[in-house]
Amino acid sequence: MKRLILVELTRYRTRRAIVLLVLLAALLAAFVAFQSAWDTRPPTEAEIATAQANADIEATRAGLQEDLAQCLKDATSGVAGVPGAEQCREMYAPNTASYLPRDPLSLTGTLKGNGIGIAILVVGLLIIAGSTFAGADWSSGSMRNQVLFEPRRSRVWAAKATAVTLSSGLVALVVLGGFWLSLTLVAADRDVPHGSGVLEDVGWHLLRAVVLAMAAGLGAFALTTVFRGSFATLSVLFTYSVGGEIVFSLLPIDGIARWSLGNNVFGWLETNLRFYDPTTRCIENGTCKGAQHISHLDAGLYLLALLLIALSVSWWSFRRRDI
Amino acid sequence: MSDLVVETRGLRKVYRDRGRKVVAVDGLDLAVERGGVHGFLGPNGSGKTTTIRMLLGLARPDAGEITVLGERFPAGVPAALARVGAVLERGQFAPDLSGRRNLDLLARAAGLPSNRVDEVLEQVELTAVAKRRYRGYSLGMKRRLGLAAALLKQPELVILDEPSNGLDPAGIRDMRDTIPRLAESGVSVVLSSHILAEVQQVCSSVTIISEGALLKAGRVADLLGESTSRTRVGVADVDRATACLLGAGYEVVVEGAFLVVEGHEHPEVISRRLADVGIYPYEVSAIRPTLETFFLKLTGHRPTPMPDPEVEA
């Protein structure tokens, strides 16, 4: 079995389309990391001076002074919940940082923004790679030869599935790991303060992204083995993800958005996903909030169920159908 | 131990095409003896390729039994295929990889030593282009690489499905030379081909099928012996010669400036009969029965045109 897995790993890494997809993933991750670092670069002295000047101008603005006077006046009223005098001065004193042209680098912010985006992009490219890996065997006719040399089809299928899973995981780990490592190093270099839990959140997010990439590559391989072509697989995935969102939004079923592929993927990747569910009718009569939460466990079970269905059909199909 | 390398009984395969049942193979009994080259013939769509795919474990029969090299299918597929090589009609290799890399991956999957790859590349004379991508190979090179893959396992049985299809005359000749060499080295060969001249030249026995069922099987010489021979006679005076031969009890057909005498009569006898009445033919030649004429008579289908002339001097 080890021999077959090594052969399939070689097939994976020598397929030209896959090499190009992996390179593209690496380039995109490097570009987004660079962009994230560039867009949050520390301000220059000139920019700080300009920000300071703008803050000073703002401090003298008549409207602001009136608002501050009103706030101080309210503070003397003694009403509970009304800001005190000290708080009023803090609130209405123009802050230089507010007038800087860029926000500083925030790993927490990246986790909700570019970090999720690049993870989904890499997973998408690994889906295409996994599908291409299987599709090439069928389109070239080389699957027949492979089965002639190893007629035990379950072993062939298992070796290919293992190879695509390991390869997808390794690519995701290197590309996304590189992305987060570079941003963490940049943050350290800039002495960007972050809470103690942020690096832990980044680590868990990275782990979940790698697991998702492995599952996505494996799922794409499994579906392509059923359809015997990459185009059909990608069409089905596109229809399920995009078409599913449309259908779900039209169905008159409360809370059905919880079952959309997109929400579950985000639920798995994000640290704590809360999303607005427009299908929840109870919002209209005010008995609930529109915001929903999908835990990692719920999202993981949903995605695992889809993967297990695809794997079962794929394995059965590969064993039973004529080649 | 059975002396058959391939044996099928009541083999049946049904496909579904747009909800319609298509019987590709219908109760086929096949027996191929060990050694030599066995031709597997049939018109297009007669079920040859489907049968070969079942013999290679690529397709499952709906009914019937298959035994290859003494191994009963489906349980014996792995054991049998370890000793079988095959060249299938369609390309079977990854186009992005070199010929050598393609063979290397197959050899590694089967646990064969890597020096076998060099040996078979040498055997099919592809060593010089072994590092070139498969995509860039000519059709002839692709077929030879297919043959190299078939030989990797040092098989006892090689199954060739239309190995000459699409090849230029030089490629066909190469293939025609290679097949008997394989048989001489002790390998049993099953050759499916449309080129009946090729089959007649290299095969010692044949099986002819039509519409998925067996029509005829046996040694080529025996089957052709069943066919009627004819003799072509060229004479200056066609009318006199016709009268003479008809008078002697022969069945004669006039074809332009020639007479065609039906039956197994030896050309020398016909020549002497004509000479006895003062007619001296300028040509007397036997029209030997060919596999094509036999095949046509049997199946009613015309295979691809024969490249060789029918008449032998």
User: What's the helix-strand series of chain B?
Assistant: EEEHEEHEHHHEHEHEEHEHEEHEH
- Measured distance between first and last alpha carbons of chain B: 44 Å
Helix percent band of chain A: over 70%
Span from first to last CA of chain A? 21 Å
How much helical structure, as a percent, in the residues of chain B? 25-40%
Oligomer: heterodimer
Residue-averaged pLDDT of chain B: 86
The CATH topology of the largest domain in chain B comes to Rossmann fold
Overall radius of gyration of chain B: 24 Å
Q: Which structural class should the secondary elements of chain B be placed in?
A: alpha/beta
Strand residue content of chain B:
25-35%
Question: What is the radius of gyration of chain A computed over CA atoms, rounded to a whole number of angstroms?
Answer: 26 Å
Total number of helices of chain B: 11
Query: Biggest β-sheet of chain B: count, sense, barrel?
Result: 6 strands, mixed
How many individual helices of chain A? 13
Low-confidence stretches of chain B: 304-313
Number of domains of chain B: 2
Shape of chain A: elongated
The chain-level mean pLDDT of chain A equals 87
Topology record:
The complex is a heterodimer of chains A (323) and B (313).
Chain A: H1 2-14, H2 16-39, H3 45-59, H4 62-75, H5 85-92, H6 107-112, H7 114-140, H8 142-149, H9 153-189, H10 196-227, H11 230-250, H12 261-269, E1 273-276, E2 291-294, H13 296-320
Antiparallel strand pairs in A: 1-2
Chain B: E1 4-17, E2 20-33, E3 37-41, H1 48-55, E4 63-68, E5 71-72, H2 77-81, E6 84-87, H3 99-109, H4 115-123, H5 139-152, E7 157-161, H6 169-184, E8 188-192, H7 196-202, E9 205-210, E10 213-219, H8 220-225, E11 230-234, H9 238-247, E12 251-255, E13 258-262, H10 267-276, E14 283-287, H11 291-299
Parallel strand pairs in B: 3-8, 3-9, 6-7, 7-8
Antiparallel strand pairs in B: 1-2, 1-4, 4-5, 9-10, 11-13, 11-14, 12-13
